[in-house]
Amino acid sequence: MFRESPILRWRGYNDRYKLKGYKCRVCKKVYFEKKGLCPCGSIEFDEIELSGKGKIAAFTQIHGAPEAFESKAPYCVAVIDLAEGARIEAQVVDCKYSDLKIGTDVEAVFRKFYSSGEKGAIHYGTKFVPKF
Amino acid sequence: MKVGVLGIGITKFGERWDQGLRELLLDAQLRALNDAKIDAKQIDTLFTGNMCGDSLSGQLHIGAMAAENLNLDKPSIRVEGACASGSLALRQGVHAITSGEARVAMVSGVEKMTDVSTEQVTTALMGAGDEELEGFNGLTFPGLYALLANAYMHKYKLKRETLAKVSVKSHFHGARNPYAQYQNEITVDTVINSPMVADPLTLFDCSPITDGAASVILVSEEIAKKAGVEVYITGSGLANDSLSLARRKSLTRIDASFVAREKAFNQAGITPKEVDFAEVHDCFSIAEILAVEGLGLAKEGEAGKLYDSKQTYFDGDMPINTSGGLKACGHPIGATGVKQAVEAVQQLRGEAKERQVKGAGIGVTHNVGGSGATVCVHVFKKVK
Question: What interface predicted TM-score (ipTM) does this complex get?
Answer without folding.
Answer: 0.95
